[in-house]
Design a protein that fits this description.
about 120 residues, 4 helices, mainly alpha, about 70% helix
């Protein structure tokens, strides 16, 4: 055979091999990027599962159940002070004798100075 024909065949074989090599590199890069994306998704899902599990553990804990019962039924432990806030503070201060702003102010000052000594004591 001729040298030019062999050279041409050699160049064609090299071109085909280099195209296949470039295609392999591009495919491996794509596979790597897909892998990284899936890895991030899996980690995010794992963190979400851990977060949900922690929330469920907290909801099932005796502390949470006691907290919910105490908040909903306004229970308190001995020695605790119970504060009840309303949108209008004067509403909670109005009793039979408290009708004016001055007496409401006096009641607030008394509350701020002494606090709630016994929430169940309604004689004050």
């Amino acid at each position: 055979m001729n040298k030019p024909v062999l050279s041409l065949l050699f160049l064609a074989a090299c071109a085909i091999l280099s195209v296949n090599a470039a295609r392999s590199v591009i495919e491996s890069y794509n596979v790597g990027s897909v892998y990284q994306e899936r890895k991030k998704q899996t980690e995010a899902q794992y963190l979400e599962v851990i977060k949900k599990k922690n929330e469920l553990d907290y909801i099932n804990s005796p502390f949470f159940i006691e907290k919910q019962l105490r908040e909903s039924l306004n229970y308190f432990k001995k020695g605790e002070k119970l504060l009840v806030f309303t949108q209008n503070p004067e509403e909670s201060l109005e009793t039979e004798n408290v009708q004016t702003q001055e007496t409401a102010l006096i009641a607030w000052l008394h509350f701020l100075q002494n606090g709630i000594l016994d929430p169940l004591d309604v004689s004050r």
